[in-house]
Amino acid sequence: MITRLIFLVLLLSVSSVYADPSIGVDVQIGALGTLEANPEGAGATQHDAALSYVLIPWVETMTVGPLQLGAEFNLLWIKGDTRQHARRLLLKPSVRVRYRRPIADKISFESSAGLGPTWWTSNNDSKAGVAGTNNRFGWGLRFGVGAGYELSHSINLHGTLGYFSNSSYGNELTKSIDGLTFGLGISSRY
User: Fold this and answer.
1) Rounded to two decimals, what is the model's pTM?
2) Which residues have a Cβ under 8 Å from the Cβ of 2 and sit 6 or more positions away?
3) What is the rounded end-to-end Cα distance, in angstroms, of the chain?
4) How far apart are CA 32 and CA 187, in angstroms?
5) Other C-beta atoms within 10 Å of 114: how many?
6) Measuring CA to CA, which residue among 102, 183, 189, 186 is closest to residue 143?
7) Mean pLDDT, to the nearest integer, of 108-128?
8) Each residue of 31-46: pLDDT tens digit?
9) What number is the average pLDDT over the span 85-103?
């Protein structure tokens, strides 16, 4: 299933209009987040989230004015901060848009956003009483702003401060997680 999702994201990206293609990867740490469960007919629960870890490989193949468009595949490892919760993997193929504008010699302002469906993989390691540990599907959004530094004509390093939000639905339960992210990344134009 994961292989099919990755293949689909790459296929959609490669089939886009060819102009100034870029590839990259971002590594992010999510902090100050919340994990919520809102079952129907019962009280909502909310916990602080433990640190979240995010890996985002991406490709951009189309340029429209100052925007680069493409696709990304988010791998998020999330966990509530209680002993009942176990770490869980979220997979999110997304449409990606990035704005990049030079500020000074070799330094640029960068912002990016991604929106797509989210698959919350099943988690059988959580303790009894944690609802929604089965496979779940929903939507996710992330965006961030930061600065980039051009190491060479084709290699760029960047740092970002961002926000992410992912929700899932089904079995009379809505689960969501959101938080701030701090990230570093590298990209290459070819």
Assistant:
1) 0.83
2) 91
3) 30
4) 27
5) 25
6) 183
7) 85
8) 888 888 886 666 678 8
9) 91
